[in-house]
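Action item from last week, closing it out:
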Amino acid sequence: ELEHDNKIYHSQVEPLLGPKGKIIGVIGVALDVTRNKQLQSNFRWARKIQEKMLPTSAPSLDGYDIAGICQQAEETGGDYFDYIDLLDGNQGIVVADVTHHGFGPALIMASTSTLVRTLAQQHEDAGRILTLANRGIWQSTDMRISVSFFFGVLNPADRIFHYAAAGQYACFLRGDGSWFHLKATSQMLGIDSEVEIPCTEPLALSRGDCLVLLTDGFREAENPQGEQFRDQRIMDLVHRNRHLSSAELLKLLLERVKEHTQSDEQDDDRTGVIIKVLE
């Protein structure tokens, strides 16, 4: 690469061969790649900003092991997770997924994250927070990009968990290996400005239980034959390795998904939080 007059050129020179393979000259091409380099730089900065928005550590709560991870498919992504201290002293735990991935969804993700955190400083109820966030997303964009959002609320002292979920579900794994879905309580954010998003009734937690909050980049990852990774495989894997920490379980899931797809490339962002109720 060469720089000239504040522009960046990618040059390639090849020998020009004559009879009997004798070099009789050279031929070269120089392409102006300034714009591409600027875009790459912008994406790198956007990625750094996104990484700064993700939690650097998980909440330290007696009797619980909590960890989160976000692996983006491109330089920027539409997934994120967060931990939010709520007004009533409970712990908010968020996993969200903006439709598609790339620069546009990354902007929506950043604004949604900021909006939800601001609303959480004014309201205690997760359903109310998501209801107001939905209106804000609807009003702030004409793109009609939708956001699946799981807002879990953990009461660590009373060992109860409830949630509001817009188009995003999670899984609840019991200590004996049985599991069930924590189903969405409404459609995705950004579809209907008037939707009211309810919270569920409290769910009692027991020692050995595990809450698994993952975006669809995990469960929908396909192998070359088109078979998805799916929740059953995820739950079996978590149960068999329940002796591992939450952080280790998430890393193991990423490794197994990569083995399943047989590819280093991702079709979608992979984001998740695991909450273990300690024995």
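Closing note: The chain is about 30% helix and 30% strand.
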